[in-house]
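call fold(seq) -> tokens
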Amino acid sequence: MATELHFDCGTLVAPTLPDDARLRALFQKDARTGVYRTEAWRYREVVLRLRELKEPYEDRAKRFEPLSLELKVPIEPFPHQREALEAWTQAKGRGLVELPTGAGKTLLAVLAIAHIQRPTLVVVPTLDLMAQWQMVLSKHLGVEVGLLGGGVNDRRPVTVTTYDSATQQTEFHGNCFGLLICDECHHLPAPSYRFIAEGSLAPYRLGLSATLERTDGGERIAEELLGPRVYRAEIRELQGRYLAPYEVRRIEVQLPPEEKARYDEARARYVGFLRKNGISLSAPEGWARFLAQSQRSEEGRAAYRGYREQKRIALTSSAKVDVLWRILVEHRGDRVLVFTEDNETVYALARRLLLPVITHHTPVPERKTLLAAFASGELPVLLTSKVLNEGVDVPDARVGVILSGSGSVREHVQRLGRILRQRPGKRALLYEVCSAQTAESGISERRRQHSAYQEGP
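ret:
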């Protein structure tokens, strides 16, 4: 009897299996229905094993066939793009590629789609990126590109979706695509997103990221679901020829006496509570313990308010605003992106400096208008919190100012990447402004632990 393969809500089902230990180890017997069931992403391994055994099988699982795609707008790949594509191809169309922001990951994906010739689902983090990918894919492949997300439900052979939308729809369309591309694939290991890859049959997979490593080691999950890391290039390798040359300037500011006094008082209240209760924030469970303990007494709630206050003072010092103003005056002929840690800070800056803001609250049409004005030069300065950290193409930005941020290395590298798009004669400049003699200095040191910051340009 031929083995039948079926797709069922993100799983691969077989009513019967050959008597092969390796094949049966991939499946579990479903006690409810009596069939054999495994995660859909095992499809490729199952089919290859059946072929190796020369066992007849009937594939009723997949709902895709090869496409006829060609580049309508030719792409002449840079050497690193060509090497990455070759490495991925040699890995049989599975794997992760780590390239700096601005190094052409989207065009690499276009080349991969044209090479594999299969229906493709591209998964991206945001609606802005979804629209951006649709435009690039339509331009180079000359096909109508579908969208799933943001109120649009238009699935086509080449479709772009968001991680949030894909999570909800994979059980319905996980058998419709032969190539799965995960942009910013460091998001995929999150428990809520893994099903996007687990529930897809796609035998070909490509993960793209500028910074693959996660603090929780989750990149190993991305490697299991998408394939091993097959290519990597660093910012330092590509700057000057394929990325703009750049310089990083770190500026420390002193808190004014009144702010310093309030900072010290708030921090003493917060740190004193940690010591009294034996809480170490360097321990994996340290922050969770502090949150739990701080809500059990008035002393704890005062300590939490102290934590919030000392952080707010360090991140939003009036001395930082003065430095920012001097930077904007000095670079009044350039396009400048200003990054902050949170929305409260960026809105306060906007009111004080009368400058426009993009946050995750900004409606998509307004974002498009602001980004278009920034690209044209009509709007030379944009303030943002985190929404422009990832992916959004702002090639005309030459100066970046990190007024505040987290200790995340990824976030810091992404923000640097926003200003590295190559332009004739362009030299990018990143300012990092932090409050001296505060906890922010330690945060700054942690986020600078990347090769992009280890040497002079």
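The chain has 17 helices and 19 strands.
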